[in-house]
Amino acid sequence: MDDPIKPDPPGTKILMPNDIDLTILIPVKNEEKNIIPTINRIEKKININYEILFVDDFSNDETKKIINKISKQKKNIFLIENIKQGLGESVKNGIYHSKGKYLAIMMCDCSDDVDDLKKYYSEIESNNLDAVFGSRFLKKSIVSDYPKMKLFLNRLFNYFISLLYLNRYTDYTNAFKMYKKETLIKLNPIVSESFNVFLELPLKIINRKYNYKIISINWFGRKNGYSKFKFNELKSKYIFTLIYCFAEKILLLNKKNKNNK
Predict the structure, then answer these.
(1) Which has the closest alpha carbon to 81: 20, 24, 15, 27?
(2) Residue 166 domain-assigned?
(3) Is residue 38 classed as helix, strand or coil in its secondary structure?
(4) Which pLDDT belongs to residue 13?
(5) CB atoms within 10 A of CB 245
(6) Residue 57 and residue 87 in contact, taking contact as beta carbons nearer than 8 Å
(7) 4 within some domain
(8) Which three-class secondary structure state does DSSP give residue 102?
(9) The pLDDT of residue 14 is above 50
(10) CA-only gyration radius of the chain, Å
(11) What range does the domain containing 79 cover?
């Protein structure tokens, strides 16, 4: 059983925007069993000034109730609710409301390794990067309980993107990445409505020649709840995002060539 959430001690300083190094953005939908484990994992290992920003996408279980209760005890935990449905909307709302200098997107299924979150922050801060991209498929990565068909489709699509972009990165579609917030703002408009937002963001980083680094990360299959990822429903959205971002890449290259003449 997970430890109950402990309130901050009396007199703890309320974090103001300039105090916050990192926003941990966690989109949620019907994740009542994973809220407390997710918070506990972060609190045990992250020791910088951070906020956890949950963005709820019309949950119909106890997710919002649990987060609201915790946020009254913890001054760095917040909940906002989508007005328009969709995971892409959750990410856009999270970026808008975040107060950290850097922003990491994590899922609430306990699949992402918090030790990798620490690695992300160390890399982006010490090297003044615009983004850090994790890959679950490098030699040092540990991947556990990944559904076989989903893994096959993931590898096929990501390798295709790598060939199209002539880029060595091969885990574009994974949500778990870290960005400098001011760089994320420059990526607007963000047009993706669902999981394809996690493809749009790194492709725009690459298109616009921002500084990023690729590191190995781990991934563990969820133990509680169920995945909201439905490939048959999302494949057209991924294709749209890839075409949209590749068209942007071509336009930016043409603009650069014209400026160089």
Answers:
(1) 27
(2) no
(3) helix
(4) 37
(5) 24
(6) yes
(7) no
(8) strand
(9) no
(10) 18
(11) 17-147+174-260
Contact of 237 with 192, CB cutoff 8 Å: yes
Number of domains in the chain: 1
With respect to residue 169, please indicate whether it lies within any of the assigned structural domains: no
Question: The domain that contains 235 carries what CATH number?
Answer: 3.90.550.10
Q: Round to whole Å and give the CA distance between 50 and 30.
A: 24
Give 129-175 pLDDT, tens digit per residue: 999 999 999 999 999 999 999 999 999 999 999 999 999 999 999 99
- Judging by DSSP bridges, how do beta strands 102-105 and 50-56 pair with one another? unpaired
Judged against a pLDDT cut of 90, whether residue 94 lies above it is answered with: yes
DSSP 37-95: HHHHHHHHH--SSEEEEEEE-S--SSHHHHHHHHHTT-TTEEEEE-SS-SHHHHHHHHH
The angle at the Cα of 257, spanning 252 to 260, to the nearest 5 degrees, equals: 125
Does residue 154 belong to any structural domain of this protein? Answer: no
